[in-house]
Amino acid sequence: MSALGLEQRVLGPRGGAALLFDEREDLIGGARPGDGDWFARHEGSKVFVNRMLETNPVPVIWTTNAISNVDDAILRRMSFVLKLGLPPRSAALRMLDRIALDESVETSADLVHLIDRAPETATVLRVAARASRLAGLNAASIQPAESLVRALRDGELPIDGPDALDIDLFETEPPRDCRRP
């Protein structure tokens, strides 16, 4: 926070500048992850942060992986909030092709299928490709990607294939013409 304050003082009079504060979670200090995507036991002065947001001469672009962790009082002081979701399938497939080229690995139908089942796969493709290469796995190995997606989902992958159940198709009462008297 002191570095951010110093940057504001140095760049403010010059004009024409903006700052990027990546991983807003770093501002939290000694906080610990709580349930969901929020943090508990915040340290530091919220008043100081609020005042800085209200008076900063240089615009700051803040990024976070846990929007729920940003206090409502801070969000109210933001000029604009943009929440980015997971990329659509078409973008995820382009990412897969680009990462495969960059990392000198092959793509596989299994990875495409995992993207279809779990869209967050797109967020771990580069790490999965590097892990496959470093582990000496088949270039098209799905193991690292599945492992990372399971971690993001707390151990569960979506059910796929004949065991999949569409709860909207489930009916608890038999049709009237099939009921016994």
Mean pLDDT, nearest integer?
Answer: 79
Question: Reading side by side through the largest sheet, how are the strands ordered?
Answer: 1-4
Please trace the helix and strand order, writing H or E for each element.
HEEEHEHHHHH
Determine the structural class based on helices, strands and strand pairing. mainly alpha
* Terminal-residue CA separation: 75 Å
Summary keywords:
181 residues, mainly alpha, 2 domains, two-stranded antiparallel ribbon
Describe this structure in words.
- With 181 residues, the chain is mostly helical.
- The chain folds into two domains: 2-75, no CATH class; 89-153.
- The protein is 38% helix and 6% strand.
- The protein has seven helices and four strands; from the N terminus they run αβββαβααααα.
- The protein has helices at residues 2-11, 46-55, 72-75, 89-103, 109-117, 125-135, 143-152; strands spanning 19-21, 32-33, 39-40, 60-62.
- The strands form two sheets. Strands 1-4 form a two-stranded parallel ribbon. The chain has a two-stranded antiparallel sheet with strand order 2-3.
- A hairpin with a 5-residue loop joins strand 2 (32-33) and strand 3.
- Helix 4 packs antiparallel against helix 5 (109-117), helix 4 packs parallel to helix 6 (125-135) and helix 6 (125-135) crosses helix 7 (143-152).
- The chain is flat.
- The model has no long low-confidence stretch (mean pLDDT 79).
In short:
The protein has helices at residues 2-11, 46-55, 72-75, 89-103, 109-117, 125-135, 143-152, and strands at 19-21, 32-33, 39-40, 60-62. The protein is mainly alpha-helical. GO terms for molecular function: ATP binding; ATP hydrolysis activity.
